[in-house]
User: Fold this.
Amino acid sequence: MRFIFRSLIWISPMLIIVAAAACVWAGFELAAPPRRILQDYHREFLADPAAHGVQVKKFTAKDGTPCLLVEPEPNGKLGMRGQRVREELSSKIITLAAPGKSIGTLVLVHGRNGRKEDYLLIAERLCAAGFRCLLPDMPGHGDHPGQHVTFGITEKNIPGDVLREAAEQFHFSPSPAGLMGMSMGGAVAVRAAAMPKAEWKALVIVSSFDRLNVAIQKTASDHAGHWLGSLWTKGAGLVYRFLTKHSLSEIRSDSAAAAITMPTLVAHGTRDSVIPIESGKRLYAALPATLEKQWIDVPDAEHDNVLITDFPIYATIAEWMLRHVK
Assistant:
């Protein structure tokens, strides 16, 4: 008995230290995740964008946001991915602009741990459908000078600001425009779309959430049990608030969703273990009942591969944007 008592005296402080360290790590991961570096496939794309049927222009917005403007090749050349999307759209009897033409602009907001270059292959497909695409780095990611992530609370102005600045700098009309965001980017896009006088004609949200703290606790509880999951979430939330001055409970996309007025498509992987599909469905339900909206299940998709399964997600997104961004 004395041995057990002494062991508990030694083990208990160690468990407390481990738990505290886990909470600190999680809080930092949420507020300032490690920045993803440029990948070889990013460099390959940027070295020869014409091989993908696009041209790429770099610029930095007035607030320091680094951006890529991706436009269809004027000569109408298509990359392999773009050709496939056009074929899928044509099979749906959808009339497309001639290759090389842009009928509007889409702002694409990357997810947590991502960077603007991750959306180059997405932009290739959407450019082939007839759009120019604008890819900004979010604070705490890529080359953005901002340090912390607030899931749209402080980033909500970025999509509209970079759209207007790009239009002025590169001499195109900022309207019509659509907005797309994935995961964290979905939360940013929802808040941007909910702003008064939002300029967007359509919105696409992929694998995002209604309430961040609820989604985090659900995932943590699935792995560590309800009690530990709840404790871990609260501890991470305290660290997150210390770093960002915002609480996790403030990060509610469902509240912002109720103010959205443009047609909205929401897609979610059925096997998402990072943001449970139930969280995405609650976000969808929070959109106004009178709104033109559509829910898409991406069969057997996890969080990280929702855009790279056999499901024709790009043709689905492009079709939604073609119907409304005009």
User: Anything to note?
Assistant: Confidence is low (pLDDT under 50) at residues 1-12.
